[in-house]
Write a structure and sequence with these properties.
mainly alpha; two-stranded parallel sheet; about 400 residues; 18 helices; 4 strands; globular; two-stranded antiparallel ribbon
Length: about 400
């Protein structure tokens, strides 16, 4: 059909991912289709003041540098729309890797001279595979847009997930998300603002350590590039559905809530091999951030215990829309993962003191292996730090 050919041409003009469609969908979800006012100037001033307090505390305790290219960190309050635009831009390399893995025609993975799509093919599964490949740019755009849009509805800053951003002296926070959560949980708004700023600035300091950034960026990029296209996964999932479910108000978000369904992508053995390394690196980051925050926050924030309890419930009770990014990037941030991270950091501190954690940021070779995350004593022995 000429219409189908024209549609493919339009989709193809945007490269491996339909970025315009991704941005438009994400903004619509993030704002619920309504006008979003600019951040109040008074809110900016308040966050800047609290940011200076948080930065001083973080640098004093950790000794980590928050400067980027010689510039002091700057707290930048943004709307959800601005958060969406910057996040899509930051995560473009990850989605481009995914496009390559799934054989997007614009990412170097297409079969050359595949010929026109024809439903008359004797192999319906092969035809469906060609169709999914042709539609991959739009499907990836919809995936990225839906994922980022839902994340924007609940994000407080850029490090709700421990994914490095492009090195910058700016740290974004989302006042609309902070205010909504404070009202929902009856939390003092300034206490929550300071908690969020401590969280963001500690992550900013850790994830800008060069070898930590390099390790985590490399692992996440490799995971995104490790998916394998398998159209049979798509048809199999469809074939398992009871038609009565679809007619009875079946939750489409559940149907399309994972890469296998939406993109015909299946986890490869290479990805399964990467997961322990990803989880070990993430455990170091989140365990250290939580420990630093507990040390600072208890003395700085009057309702720190209540705020922390609410926030830690929130991060492990994420919706399936939020979990999509974790499945897509191998970031399975469940409660047992956070408990594992806390056990590693607490074990190091109990044996060798808080100062021993500084070795994490000295050299890439000092980052713990998956086995050492489960046995802090092994890590201390390898880096030649004795137990007390």
């Amino acid at each position: 059909m000429p219409f189908f050919g024209d549609l493919m041409k339009m989709i193809g003009q945007q490269g491996p991912v339909a970025w315009d469609a991704a941005s438009q969908l994400a903004i619509t979800i993030a704002t619920e289709g309504e006008f979003e006012p600019n951040v109040d100037p008074l809110e900016r001033i308040r966050l800047e003041q609290l940011g200076r307090v948080a930065e001083l505390q973080v640098t004093s305790l950790t000794g980590l540098d928050t400067l980027v290219a010689g510039r002091s960190v700057e707290i930048v309050p943004v709307t959800r729309t601005m958060w969406v635009v910057d996040t899509i831009e930051a995560w473009k390399p990850l989605f481009s890797n995914l496009a390559t893995a799934l054989g997007s025609p614009h990412a170097g993975g297409a079969t050359p001279d595949a010929g026109p799509l024809t439903p008359a093919s004797p192999d319906p599964e092969a035809w469906l595979g060609e169709l999914l490949q042709a539609l991959n740019p739009m499907l990836l755009g919809m995936t990225a847009g839906s994922m980022v849009g839902h994340l924007a509805r609940r994000s407080f800053g850029v490090y709700d997930l421990p994914i490095p951003r492009k090195a910058s002296h700016e740290v974004q926070v989302v006042p609309a998300g902070i205010d909504a959560f404070a009202a929902e949980w009856s939390i003092d708004a300034d206490d929550l603002r300071l908690w969020v700023l401590l969280h963001e600035l500690t992550h900013h300091a850790v994830l800008n350590v060069p070898h930590v950034r390099t390790r985590l960026e490399g692992l996440l990029a490799s995971y995104a590039a490790g998916f394998r296209a398998d159209p049979s996964a798509f048809t199999s999932r469809l074939g398992d559905l009871d038609p009565a479910q679809l007619q009875g108000g079946f939750d489409m978000a559940e149907l399309f809530g994972d890469p296998e369904m939406l993109l015909g992508a299946v986890q490869s053995p290479e990805q399964r091999d990467l997961i322990p390394q990803i989880e070990a690196t993430v455990a170091v980051v989140v365990g250290y951030v939580d420990h630093v925050m507990d040390h600072i926050g208890a003395n700085l924030i009057s309702s720190y215990g209540m705020v922390t309890e609410a926030m830690r419930r929130r991060r492990v009770e994420a919706s399936e829309a939020d979990r999509f990014v974790e499945r897509l990037l191998g970031l399975h941030l469940t409660q047992d993962r956070y408990d594992r991270a806390a056990s590693f950091v607490d074990g190091v501190v109990e044996r060798a003191g808080f100062g021993a954690l500084e070795r994490l940021w000295a050299d890439e070779r000092d980052l713990p292996t998956p086995a050492e995350v489960d046995a802090p004593g092994l890590w201390l022995a390898r880096i030649d730090l004795p137990d007390d």
